[in-house]
Amino acid sequence: MKSLDIFNNLSEQVMIRINSCSEVKHPNSWLERRQYKDYDVWCIQEGQVQITVQEETFLASEGDVVLFSPDVAYTATTTSKYCRFIFIHFDFSLGNHSRILDNFKLSGILKGAIIKNEKRLFLEAYEKYKRSEAMSQLHLKGSLTILIAKILELYGDNYYHGEFIPVTTTPKLANYNYLDKILPVFDYVENHLHQSISIRELAEIAGMSEKYFITYFKQSLGVTPGNYITQLKMNRARDLLYSKLYSIQEIASMLGYPDPYSFSKAFKKYYQVPPSKFVW
DNA sequence: TCGGCTGATGGAATGGGGTT
DNA sequence: AACCCCATTCCATCAGCCGA
Questions:
Q1: What's the count of helices (H) and strands (E) in chain A, helices before strands?
Q2: Torsions phi, psi of A93, nearest 5?
Q3: Residue A13, Cβ density class (10 Å: 0-12 exposed, 13-18 middle, ≥19 buried)
Q4: Which of A90, A95, A123 lies closest to A19, judged by CA?
Q5: Cα–Cα nearest to A58, from A36, A38, A74, A34
Q6: Nucleotide at minimal C1' distance from the A230 CA
């Protein structure tokens, strides 16, 4: 299992909040030196944008998408007569972890060709948003989610990795491998969903004391290990129920619950509906 | 990174409602 | 009546927060 799978498995815990979204056009004399506290995506519509990060210079052309992570200090100018781009500022968090994406080198320039469809959806949503059409904010958020999912997918498949380096304020932020320590735990949970999993055994796998493991896990992922296990089990329970191939008793046993009652209890707590009423 | 405290959770037993 | 499923209750254990 790849560490990026957490975003898929914990998709219900992912929160994206749009802070601002607009379109700007800058003349050749434009020079901007900034460092934001949230994420920022630029969709270059016209011209070329030259971006300098940590003394290194990059060029984003028409059609490209630029992703800035928080704490990336950049200087931007245009090498063409003028440039025009749409920007969107947003926060991205998993559970209560607002900087989970810092674990990955995502900040940089994505060539338009590799993200074509997702960018098109985003631009369509932006046009709706600009005209204040009905549900346009939901459209915008949805299309941004798709765009980010695509960036994560490209990153996971090694088709993309960002080259912007953030200004490291704490040692933790400099460590892109922060999740690596608990990666074996993800694998273990994934492969042992059919049995009851104790935090103690997970801590052992991570090579930490039980108490510290819980703290570390929550700091790294934004959710507690217990919540993580429950989330995965409930995802699978939902899929198994939809398949209509198994009884509640069978599913309970497939997910490591000692009896169907405990499973029902956990299921209802999570979905607010008992498993028997979940699929009609 | 650890230990103590406390609320949360699991497991077992029991009961009730619905269905066959 | 028998069976199934879920709710409730009680008690023991565990997870996770907080302070050091």
A1: 11, 9
A2: -135, 155
A3: buried
A4: A90
A5: A74
A6: B9
| A244 CA vs B6 C1’ separation (Å) | 41
pLDDT 10s digits, A168-218: 544 333 334 456 677 777 777 777 777 767 666 777 777 666 666 776 777
Residue A280, SS3 per DSSP: coil
Distance A263 CA to C4 C1' (A): 15
Crossing angle (nearest 10°) for helices A210-221 and A199-206:
80
Residue A273 exposed, middle or buried by CB count within 10 Å (0-12, 13-18, 19+): exposed
Give the pLDDT confidence of A6-31 residue by residue, as tens digits.
Answer: 888 888 778 888 999 999 999 999 99
A258 touches strand C (CB under 7 A): no
Which architecture characterizes domain A9-156 according to CATH?
Sandwich (2.60)
- Give me the residues near strand B, CB below 7 A: A 196, 208-209, 211-212, 215-216, 226, 230, 257-259, 261-262, 265-266, 269
Both tokens of A87, joined, read 């920007």
pTM value? Answer: 0.81
Token pair 């040692």 is at which residue? A171
- Bases of chain B with protein Cβ within 7 A: 1-4, 9-14
Nucleotides of C under 7 A from a protein CB: 5-8, 14-18
Ranges of each domain in chain A: 9-156, 179-278
A226 closest-nt by C1' vs CA: C15
Q: Does CATH place domain A179-278 in 1.10.10.60?
A: yes
A234/B15 CA-to-C1' distance in Å: 28
